[in-house]
């Protein structure tokens, strides 16, 4: 029996292979294209999870159980930082965000993507043409062909025109894409954060006060969305362009060196790429952690700017400096650690991609020189040189493209970090909009019992009067201030609310204003728009003097109500602030009113705002503490004349006579709601103060008596 690998058998196989080589070449090229697309997809798809393995935020926790909550800073329930990876959760979040940034095939963003793709194809075609032209120029030099050399130089200069135009337009379109993505996401974020016109969601308040998941929404909206948009616009080019280049370059290269050589190169590159991926750190987690640390550092700086006066009075510079330095050095240490990781990873990455793959590529380019391939003519030195230069340039471009695909995984990991941040922002706002909150319980009472109360929901009905029936007053962190509150306020009957700090006075107002949910019982109240709050330190917005009085109305809203500047001046005169218009330079002057006006003037402006809007109910929280008693009297009487029902928190006895009922908390979860007899209460207050003064005199008399006894005893001796 003849051996399988006999010379005649090898000859027959070689002849058959040579006859069918064009078909084999096409099959290998198709296989390579399928491998590139499928391999890129597999390389960037979700990694399979082993049983019991941790996954990143938003997925399952250890051993597949769902997380019960999140710790501070977005950590898992056990306090360990969330893991952010290129996994199934990342792709699910990215798909959700893509539906926001590209709402339809006819959208502006879709058109920009199509234009971007067309430019990528055109640039690759130009690159292949330039590679062939480069080989022809070198070939004409070797052959000493002057005229072809000059013609090729002219072609080189002519092709530079569309090449440079294409590169500039690619950069421009990519920047436009990033800006369009950011605009879509910012509009969506602001729609959720501040709500539509007339919305009562108040996400901007609830996300900071009723939920623990996001500590710095301002940083996420202004910085993280911008970084995500930039990375998202770049990642398409960084993946699609190299993938397209790999397919076209290698097809072109296969015509010169044979698809068999590319098959060997592909296997070699694939094996080394797997090694490289195994040593690639989790850059996505590092990016998300750096964004969180940067947000914490910024929040510390903002807090210092807001409380600069208090810090200055207390002399707290050293403490604040320590806090700022703590956050900064935490960010600095993390950045330094990531730089060290990038250093050794970059060394390994460059050695594999540039030098190892480069040496293999040189060997592939030398195949037509040392071996005769069917259908490839290499008769003279010029032809061989031309082919080598062309193949070398195409191979370098192909190697660079594959390297960029490998680099893109690192960039994709960074995109995963920003995706986690942006997705967390939208997911949290969506949950808060549906009244689904996650907040750590810090109640001194039984956390389990309080958690049950927090899971309940009461009923709210719209009514002209205010009535609470068995409503628990609960803080978002689970502290139950009053287990069952019942009272009723009819229009025109002012309510005075008193009690120690932390007993639930402000909590009651937050329920009335629709800021806090009702955890049980029944609440009947007017719409939240029928309430206006005047705090002890009123909020003054950016804008003109007129804007401070009519806030949140615009001048157009004011005109639509038929209110003129003359009417506003009458309101200011009622609160004894009529002089401010002339003093500040008119209604249209804009200043930093928070710093321009004194505490008393701010309270007067807030009362002017109340008289302008003329709501059904006004919530007054120690809002006359900085005005004289005679001004306070005018303010209270004017509000009564306008038909505004007052809900007042104050311990000033001068306000008692303006109220009809009183809700008094004892600070231990109990309360008393009853009619208010101002004269009797004042008399009792005066009697109490007189008795306290006499008790103080008793102590003084006892001390004097002890002194006299000592003197008598001393003289007796």
Automatic annotation (TrEMBL):
CDD domains: ABCD_peroxisomal_ALDP. It holds the Pfam family ABC_tran. It is found in: Peroxisome membrane. GO terms for cellular component: peroxisomal membrane. Its main location: membrane. GO terms for biological process: fatty acid beta-oxidation; long-chain fatty acid import into peroxisome; peroxisome organization; very long-chain fatty acid catabolic process. SMART domains: AAA. Residues 466-711 form the ABC transporter domain. Gene3D superfamilies: P-loop containing nucleotide triphosphate hydrolases. Residues 48-80 are annotated as: Disordered. InterPro entries: AAA+_ATPase, ABC1_TM_dom, ABC_transporter-like_ATP-bd, ABC_transporter-like_CS, ABC_transporter_sub-D, P-loop_NTPase. It is a multi-pass membrane protein. Keywords: ATP-binding, Coiled coil, Membrane, Nucleotide-binding, Transmembrane, Transmembrane helix, Transport. One of its GO terms (molecular function) is ABC-type transporter activity. Residues 681-711 form a coiled coil. Belongs to the ABC transporter superfamily. ABCD family. Peroxisomal fatty acyl CoA transporter (TC 3.A.1.203) subfamily. This is ABC transporter domain-containing protein. It comes from Serendipita vermifera MAFF 305830.
């Amino acid at each position: 029996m003849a051996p399988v690998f006999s010379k005649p058998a090898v000859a027959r196989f070689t002849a058959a292979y040579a006859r069918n080589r064009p078909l084999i070449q096409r099959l290998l090229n198709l296989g390579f294209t399928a491998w590139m697309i499928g391999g890129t997809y597999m390389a960037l798809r979700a990694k399979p999870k082993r049983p019991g393995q941790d996954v990143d935020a938003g997925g399952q926790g250890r051993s597949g159980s769902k997380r019960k909550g999140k710790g501070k800073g977005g950590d898992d329930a056990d306090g360990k930082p969330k893991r952010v990876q290129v996994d199934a959760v990342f792709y699910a979040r990215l798909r959700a965000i893509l539906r926001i940034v590209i709402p339809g095939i006819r959208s502006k963003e879709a058109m920009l993507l199509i234009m971007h793709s067309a430019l990528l194809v055109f640039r690759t075609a130009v690159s292949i043409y330039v590679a062939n032209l480069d080989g022809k120029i070198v070939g004409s030099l070797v052959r000493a062909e002057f005229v072809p050399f000059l013609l090729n130089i002219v072609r080189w200069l002519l092709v530079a025109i569309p090449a440079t135009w294409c590169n500039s337009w690619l950069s421009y379109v990519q920047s436009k894409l990033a800006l369009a993505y950011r605009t879509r996401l910012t509009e969506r974020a602001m729609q959720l954060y501040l709500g539509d016109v007339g919305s009562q969601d108040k996400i901007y308040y609830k996300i900071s006060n009723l939920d623990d998941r996001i500590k710095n929404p301002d940083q996420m909206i202004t910085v993280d969305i911008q970084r995500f948009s930039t990375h998202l616009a770049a990642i398409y080019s960084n993946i699609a362009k190299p993938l397209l280049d790999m397919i076209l370059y290698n097809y072109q290269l296969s015509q010169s060196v044979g698809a068999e050589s590319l098959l060997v190169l592909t296997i070699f590159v694939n094996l080394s790429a797997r090694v490289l991926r195994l040593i690639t750190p989790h850059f996505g987690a590092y990016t998300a952690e750096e964004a969180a640390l940067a947000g914490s550092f910024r929040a510390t700086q903002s807090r210092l700017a807001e409380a600069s006066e208090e810090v200055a009075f207390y002399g707290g510079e050293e403490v604040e400096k320590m806090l700022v330095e703590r956050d900064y050095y935490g960010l600095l240490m993390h950045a330094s650690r990531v730089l060290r990781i990038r250093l050794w990873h970059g060394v390994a990455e460059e050695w594999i991609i540039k030098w190892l793959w480069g040496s293999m590529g040189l060997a592939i380019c030398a195949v037509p020189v040392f071996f005769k391939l069917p259908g490839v003519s290499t008769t003279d030195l010029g032809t061989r040189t031309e082919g080598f230069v062309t193949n070398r340039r195409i191979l370098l471009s192909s190697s660079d493209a594959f390297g960029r695909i490998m680099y893109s995984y690192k960039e994709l990991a960074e995109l995963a970090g920003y995706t986690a941040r942006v997705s967390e922002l939208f997911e949290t706002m969506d949950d808060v909009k549906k009244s689904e909150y996650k907040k750590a319980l810090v109640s001194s009472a039984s956390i389990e019992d309080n958690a049950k109360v927090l899971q309940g929901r009461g009923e709210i009905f719209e009514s002209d009067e205010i009535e609470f029936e068995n409503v628990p007053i609960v803080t978002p962190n689970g502290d139950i201030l009053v287990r069952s509150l019942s009272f009723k306020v009819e229009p025109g009957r002012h309510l005075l609310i008193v009690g120690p700090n932390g007993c639930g006075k402000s909590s009651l107002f937050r329920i009335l204003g629709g800021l806090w949910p009702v955890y049980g019982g029944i609440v009947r109240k007017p719409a939240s728009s029928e309430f206006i709050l005047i705090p002890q330190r009123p909020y003054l917005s950016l804008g003109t003097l007129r804007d401070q009085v009519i806030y949140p109305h615009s001048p157009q809203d004011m005109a639509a109500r038929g209110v003129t500047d003359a009417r506003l001046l009458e309101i200011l005169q009622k609160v004894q602030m009529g002089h401010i218009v002339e003093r500040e330079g008119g209604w249209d002057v804009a200043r930093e009113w928070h710093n321009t006006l004194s505490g008393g003037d701010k309270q007067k402006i807030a009362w002017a705002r109340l008289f302008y809007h003329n709501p059904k109910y006004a919530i007054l929280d120690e809002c006359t503490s900085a005005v004289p008693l005679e001004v306070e009297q005018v303010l209270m009487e004017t509000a009564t004349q306008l038909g505004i029902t007052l809900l007042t928190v104050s311990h000033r006895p001068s306000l008692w006579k303006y109220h009809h009922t009183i809700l008094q908390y004892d600070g231990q979860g109990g309360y008393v709601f009853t009619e208010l007899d101002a004269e009797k209460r004042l008399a009792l207050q005066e009697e109490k103060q007189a008795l306290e003064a006499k008790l103080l005199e008793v102590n003084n008399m006892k001390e004097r008596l002890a002194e006299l006894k000592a003197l008598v005893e001393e003289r007796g001796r």
